[in-house]
Amino acid sequence: MQFPESWLREFCNPPLSTEQLAQTLTMAGLEVEELKPVAPPFTKIVVGEIKESAQHPNADRLHVCQVDVGQAELLTIVCGAPNARVGIKVPCALVGAELPPGEDGKPFLIKVGKLRGVESYGMLCSARELKLSNDHGGLLELRSDAPLGQNIREHLKLDDTLFTLKLTPNLAHCLSVYGVAREVAALTGAPLMTPSFSVVKAGGADTLPVKVSAPDLCGRFSGRIVRHVNPRASTPDWMVERLARCGQRSVTALVDISNYVMFELGRPSHIFDLDKIHGGLNVRWGKPGEQLKLLNGNTVTVDDQVGVIADEAEVESLAGIMGGDATAVSDNTQNIYVEAAFWWPKAIAGRSRRFNFSTDAGHRFERGVDPSQTVEHIERITQLIIDICGTADTVCGPIDDQQVNMPVAPPVSLRVARACKVIGMALTQAQCADALTRLGLAITQSEGIITVAPPSYRFDLQIEEDLIEEVARMVGYNNLPSIPPLAPITAKVRPETQRSPFALRRSIAALGYQETINFSFVEERWEHELCANPNPIKLLNPIASQMSVMRSSLLGSLLQVLKFNLDRKAQRVRVFELGRVFLRDASVKNTDATVEGFDQPMRVAGLVCGSADAVQWGHKERPVDFFDIKGDVEILLAPRRPVFESAQHPAMHPGRCARVMLDGVAIGFVGELHPKWRQAYDLAQAPLMFELDLDALLQREVSVFKGVAKHQAVDRDIAVMVSEKLSSHADLMDAIWSAPTAGLLRNAVLFDIYRPKSAKDLDAPGSEKSYAIRLTLNSDDATLTEEQIDNATQAVLASLLSKLGARQRT
Amino acid sequence: MNELNSVVDSAKAAFEQARTPADLENAKALFLGKSGRITELMKGMAALTVDEKKSRGAAINLAKQAIEVALNNRRQALADAELQAQLQAEALDVTLPGRQRGQGSLHPVSLTLERIEAIFGSMGFDVAQGPEIESDWFNFTALNTPEDHPARSMHDTFYVEGGTATAPNLLRTHSSPMQIRYAVQHVKRHRAAAGVGPTEGLFSGDMPEIRVIAPGRTYRVDSDATHSPMFHQCEGLWVGENVSFKDLKFVFTDFCRTFFESDDLVLRFRPSFFPFTEPSAEIDIQFQSGPLAGRWLEVAGSGQVHPNVIRNMGLEPEKYIGFAFGMGPDRLAMLRYGVNDLRLFFDGDVRFLSQFQS
């Protein structure tokens, strides 16, 4: 809400500077979002009248004006404005004046200067030159009664500040200048000017029949007929200016008056063109399908959740939100109906949002507007109408006031002891009572209890905590004592079997990966292509099409990060992310920890692309490959030993993809991006990726001591030839470990793969490769004998022969 | 005796001339070998008398010893020279860079969350995590924000399929749903332990305090230089029998000063409104030095948990009170590390990310 400080000070004028006033409001919960001077600084600009205007002798577009600024002599001023004509009053910058600072921040100084040979003793100003508006139409024309020589700041009341408040939904009673003033009075003790409303004399008994059919919508409906008004009367300058300083442009006098009283007193009202109403009015819930063309030109279709004011023919107004086009006042209006009602907040809340717009009236009604003063405020509006739009024939009907369902605010009690406990401060009953009284609340007291009768304008005083808050606010949050809390001490440490996600992040970072955080909503195409997910979880109101579905995998996001960095000439990218993915799962129910239909596990994914190592003298450059990233996965899972099995993943190369198994459970995939996506995503090199369940990486086992071998281990290297096609490393290891070595085999490591030069064509039948394996043998009982070593080695070779057809290389 | 002296001198000269161990061994043979000069001199003593033998032998021995000393000196010198040559040959250019494994880094927001967890962990707070696709109940209604509450318009909500027609599922707009989820789980556990059945009304028995933070991702329909449609929040909740508003102020002040490692950091608690807390406070901080000195910066919303919310946790508000806060780790990370554009956090630009080595 925006308003000028000067208006506020008419109601309550505490001895505080502008900044102090703003600070007081902010610290009381009425956050001042912005303080903006009405005009930038400038000096020595006064009201001047153009007395003569002659063509400049040397310039077609310039005039030489004689300007009266209330001094003995006229000033000669050269001016190029198209509207510089004799008789108008305009702002005149005198010699020595400082105009508003330009972009360099320095004020522009007016000096005597020659313009094409004619001396000019000042400058006539446009609104734009004074930075009052962007209007560049010419000189700012002032009222004809403006006193010559008067300082323009005084004349236009420019030494004023616009306050913009960011009011929270509980502060309905502060949605007007008077409402804020009431709060300022409570906070500062400065007197509050309470407006009085003179009663306009009614002529006759002219009323409009109104029926309130929905008391759960409308608690009070007040209205009056005013006949023979002049709708074309112009709004007085002071009202136009105040509205403008509240951010409201002037429309017509009648609309302006309604708006003015809303800003002044917080009372939205509506003025109908009486002659366009068919019969009487009926205040009721809408009927499904009924349509209404609104003042803003939109046509809305209502239903039985939306309140309306209808006449005998049609719906004429959206209750508490906006009037209709058909009964709007126009230049031809003669007779009007002024309405002010109390709409139940719950009956208005959220309605305008359904139609995708908001209005000042709706904003106020859904938070709560004082039901008590509809009649007084109609009197105020009527008086303004008579003053501004009145004619000799203007006549007012009596106010028809129907109170069908007035809110009753039950008294609320505050226990002083409870307030002390919740606030954490030793407050006396007197302090609490003082705080509430300053707010203008009527209280009664008994031992330890203060009871408040909430005033009709306070919709936020319903329970004890509401009063505790008011006490805390008045005492001031700054005055809360600075005493540390007393609390029981209990040990709270993460179990040793559970690694912290931050420890995992550090392990991944130690492998050279940068952590990224990416949006959970992604492009739908990624889900189809990279996850083979035909039906991703959709956002109903996505912010953009490339953020329209919830991701079921982190890989798409990492590919996008890769692309982003490659586009910026990154040579080598290693990135990872920890994040949630979103999967449909009908087995998930609503519980304390889950939401029905969705599985939302945490995952960790990594992506590498480019050379295996950063460019350096000590390593030969080579592209990163499957076994680099597989090694990373193994390090992250260590000391647990995953099993990798050949698998298919929609994002990955079918021959270079493995499912990662841990204790027989699949925990994710590692592999190379499928060449077709590499092409589709326009990547020169194939990135390698992994994606794993986070939980699996966080689980660890507490280590258990096993005896250290007492005897020296023995290594034996063997080399076997196996068929190129027939075996995998996993098969090889299975064959080795299944050999009957009497428990002597302790370790087996493949340390070389060699393909004879003749075996270039790997598909050729009978092509072979040689595996070199180091066996480590040991016994817990005694130092191994040559015979034991030989037997074990032979057993391994025999197993390799029988299982894989592998023969020892000679 | 001159003869012996000259033998020693010529031996020394010969040794000096030896340039390699082999040369030296050859030179040694000339003097100390089987047919070397010393051996010959010994042989020449056969004709002498016993006394002459005695004196002559002693003299030859002295000469022999002198030759041996010279030999050993020369051997050592050659060995030293050889070692020296080897060391020189083995010298490295120690200014060449070491082999680089490459070091990655944590995201600055992660670093921030890690410190938040550490600081609140030291004060006895647990860490809880929960769903990001959330139901209307946990995100709004249970937090005392019923349908059509004006406060809902403060949150521009992303809706997701599922839920009910009037209360569709959504992406959580704040981390506050975790207040309810964590507290409900905590209360269920302890009311069962206290032997109070699940249908026996609000719990007013004894239980350990609830002290938890819940960091995570949150979402709002908003995107510009200072708003991201996805951002982070960290919720805090402390519920016990005597946890007051001044405790909130003390704990959060302590947190901020610890986080920014600045004892002169100034905090401002100003009244505000959230449906789920009352009294409520917006928390602003002000640095006394640095580029942001003197400006008030909003870092958290907070307040005493509203009694309706305490009830939705399953607790009796006459017995249990406490505070909650929700802060923006993105904002804290920007302030801590001097990042000036929120969008950098979510671009994934490695030139940005690699600046946060730790």
Spatial order of strands in the largest sheet of chain A = 27-30-33-37-36-35-34
**What can be said about the biggest beta sheet of chain B?**
7 strands, mixed
The low-confidence parts of chain A are none
Low-confidence stretches of chain B: none
Note the main sheet of chain A.
Answer: 7 strands, mixed
Shape descriptor of chain B: rod-shaped
Distance between the termini of chain B: 80 Å
Radius of gyration of chain B: 44 Å
Helix content of chain B: 40-55%
SS class of chain A:
alpha+beta
Distance between the termini of chain A: 92 Å
Q: Tell me, what's the shape of chain A?
A: elongated
DSSP summary: helix tally of chain A: 21
Radius of gyration of chain A: 42 Å
Supply the number of helical segments of chain B: 12
**How many strand units of chain A?**
41
Which features does this protein show?
heterodimer, A: 810 residues, alpha+beta, seven-stranded mixed β-sheet, 21 helices, elongated, B: 358 residues, three-stranded antiparallel β-sheet, 12 helices, 42% helix
What does the secondary structure layout of this molecule look like, with pairings?
The complex is a heterodimer of chains A (810) and B (358).
Chain A: E1 2-4, H1 5-11, H2 18-27, E2 31-37, E3 43-55, E4 63-68, E5 75-79, E6 89-99, E7 108-109, E8 113-115, E9 118-120, E10 123-124, H3 152-155, E11 161-166, H4 177-188, E12 210-212, E13 218-227, H5 237-245, H6 253-265, E14 270-273, E15 281-285, E16 291-293, E17 299-301, E18 307-310, E19 315-318, E20 322-323, E21 336-343, H7 345-348, H8 351-354, H9 360-365, H10 374-389, E22 395-396, E23 400-403, E24 412-415, H11 416-423, H12 429-438, E25 442-446, E26 449-453, H13 464-475, H14 501-510, E27 514-515, E28 521-522, H15 524-531, E29 549-550, H16 555-566, E30 573-580, E31 583-584, E32 598-599, E33 602-609, H17 626-637, E34 643-646, E35 652-662, E36 665-673, H18 675-680, E37 688-693, H19 694-698, E38 714-723, H20 729-737, E39 745-754, E40 768-777, H21 786-804, E41 807-808
Parallel strand pairs in A: 12-15, 27-30
Antiparallel strand pairs in A: 1-11, 2-11, 3-4, 3-6, 4-5, 6-7, 6-10, 8-9, 13-21, 13-22, 13-23, 14-21, 15-18, 16-17, 18-19, 19-20, 24-26, 25-26, 28-29, 30-33, 31-32, 33-37, 34-35, 35-36, 36-37, 38-40, 38-41, 39-40
Helix pairs in contact in A: 1-4, 5-6, 6-10, 11-13, 12-13, 20-21
Chain B: H1 2-17, H2 21-32, H3 37-43, H4 50-90, H5 108-122, E1 126-127, E2 133-134, H6 136-139, E3 159-163, E4 168-171, H7 177-193, E5 210-219, E6 230-240, H8 245-259, E7 266-274, E8 277-286, E9 297-305, H9 307-312, E10 321-327, H10 329-337, H11 344-347, H12 350-353
Parallel strand pairs in B: 1-5
Antiparallel strand pairs in B: 2-4, 3-4, 5-6, 6-10, 7-8, 8-9, 9-10
